[in-house]
Amino acid sequence: MRVLVLGSGAREHALCLSLAADPSVTALVCAPGNAGTASVAEQRPVATTDPVAVTQLASDIGAELVIIGPEAPLVAGVADAVRAAGIACFGPSAAAARLEGSKAFAKDVMSAAGIPTAGSFVCQTPEEAAKALDVFGPPYVVKDDGLAAGKGVLVTVDREAALAHAAACGRVVIEEFLDGPEVSLFCVSDGTAVVPLLPAQDFKRIFDGDAGPNTGGMGAYAPLEWLPPGTVEQVMSSVAQPAIKELSRRGTPFVGLLYIGLAMTSAGPKVIEFNARFGDPETQVVLALLETPLAGLLYAAATGSLAEQPPLRWHEGAAVTVVIAAANYPGTPRLDDAIYGGDQPGVIHAGTRRDADGVLRSAGGRVLSATAAAATLADARSAAYRLVDSIELPGGQHRTDIAWKAVTGKVAIPAG
Ligand code: AMP
Ligand code: GLY
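A: This is the predicted complex of the input protein with glycine.
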């Protein structure tokens, strides 16, 4: 099978590594890719949000499966165009990708399908925002309605700051604060059937101890040993299946990766957000543990035959990834620093490029993702941090507490 992966982050590098290991993949192209994907896939430049350009590239290379990594092309209708050209595509239509593209739309789907989530109001004016903040009280949660690369959400006890964020965003969703540890559950869907991958946990804040602003994600681990037995089944029946059914009922079936971001509250799992694609950095740890060949699974989803697939197989053990970000991230990142140690196994590339002299350089906010799998979470964590220690990026930042609470048995679901 000839496969095209669209995107240029660590998620796409991890996807390419898994696809390259699948014997059914005969050709692998990544567009536009990064210095990491260049070592496993052919690189092609492309404007990722241009449906015509992506479809042209897919047909030029004879792609039999297109996998769309990031959300922006999905929201721009790239999957619609690829499918219209008769090429199997893993990634939802623009209509179904609104699940991620508009927080208000996601809330509407959840309410129609009876999916447990935080109470919320959509607000357009400072008066509406002020009223909504006071209904819920602190801590305040204010979300930009549109796409914001994980950075459009402000959680704060400062009412003035919450109002200022609402004013800066325009249309916002203001919601009830959900207490409890977060879980990312990825579900593969062909529009009707839906299959969960292993649950993972992501670390959204920039600094240790969950301090500082939100980022795209600073590290992750899987699986989650602290999760009560039956949680995944519960989320499948209370969230994943109703969401897929509701989108199908609306005539906009969701074909691709439904990313369910949950809070494990005292009242059970509640949805914090939906995304319409693989999460980054969770993908790095989930795929590190997946034994089932990836291309076949995603092709089955893209072609409506997921129900005929055998159950997924997983490697024993656990995986941890630690993101190394550029100086000043999540603000405007410093770029072009030389990176040493970036070509070792387990080092997944995000914002990287290779200059004319062959030197690896930083080219984005999140630069690398040091990933390791081992028999135990503690061992995977140690190995991931050893890898971090062997990498040099001037001004680079990383968290030192990824998976620490889980290793020490300190992840607690609030008591009911
Ligand atoms: P989102 O983009 O909706 O995933 O929000 C980014 C991050 O903000 C989440 O991963 C949470 O850490 C936090 N967050 C979002 N919504 C809530 C909420 N209702 N209660 C508590 N934290 C939230
Ligand atoms: N890790 C969070 C995201 O991909 O949105």
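The domain at 2-91 is CATH 3.40.50.20 (Rossmann fold). Residues 118, 141, 143, 150, 153, 155, 175-178, 182, 204, 214, 261, 272-273 surround adenosine monophosphate (ligand 1) (CB under 6 Å).
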